[in-house]
Request: fold
Amino acid sequence: MKSAVILFPGSNREGDAIRALKPHGPAEIVWHGEADLPRGTDLVVLPGGFSYGDYLRCGAIAAHSPIMAAVRAHAERGGLVLGICNGFQILVEFGLLPGVLMRNAGLHFICRMQHLRVERTDAAFASAYEKGQIIRIAIAHGEGNYAADSQTIARLEGEGRVAFRYCDAAGEVTSAANPNGSINAIAGIYSERFNVLGMMPHPENLIDPLVGGTDGRGLFTSIAGSFTVAV
Amino acid sequence: MKARVFVTLRSGILDPQGKAIEGALKSLQIDGVKSVRQGKLFDVEIETLDPAAAKALLQQACQKLLANQVVEDFEVEIS
Reply:
């Protein structure tokens, strides 16, 4: 699997993403001002951080970067795109995913571990997990409160496009376990064709037992596995 | 030509920042404030002298960048 991690001015998790991807094949950083993705790119990752200092709205200015036209073309060809945290914010601003990420309901920036429920395992991003599996992943954001109009939410739920939901250690989706006020405790969503995933939590930071756990590894082995099967 | 663009959260969209400001005003004993909603104001200078062209230009700017129309409305004021 060949990965391209897009670097925007103000991204800061690109190194973490590269570290999580490298065991599965070549992974390189691509500057946002480029017009093209490297030849043979299988997976595009929009990493976390604070692109353009979160000016105007999180992700709004990065969504107009030159490279984004190539990212759209990659997604339209069915290529995989993963947006993590600020990357998720960029994807919704760019329109590859619906909705918007608003200020956390409690107004605070939240940086801590959080339980998530894996909602489906037949997508390329989550096949290494079990359906309903509870994983523990870091969150670090001030604007992760997912919102969309009621028709969009109904459509996402009806089509099974919620990838992960915030829950407690027992897997219960309760308002107490929802860190940011997201509608239906949505932590990540898929595009219509399930080839674009946007999520607020940081799986790339949970790949080493030294730093708190390995529950994020499954996401990267899932993606890599989807290419082994295809080839 | 000078213009102002106001970008505000649609009614019905929860505004936690506005709510926090509302609470702070109450704690400062600034009484009589019923509610606060926070928005953004852009002062823009435009080359054209034609108000209609200026308005069209800024509407485009709002649709493309200044406002996220999923949750925000905008208003253009030409002075």
About this structure: The domain at 3-230 of chain A is CATH 3.40.50.880 (Rossmann fold). Chain A has one domain: 3-230. The first strand of chain A starts at residue 3 and ends at 7. Chain A has a mean pLDDT of 96.
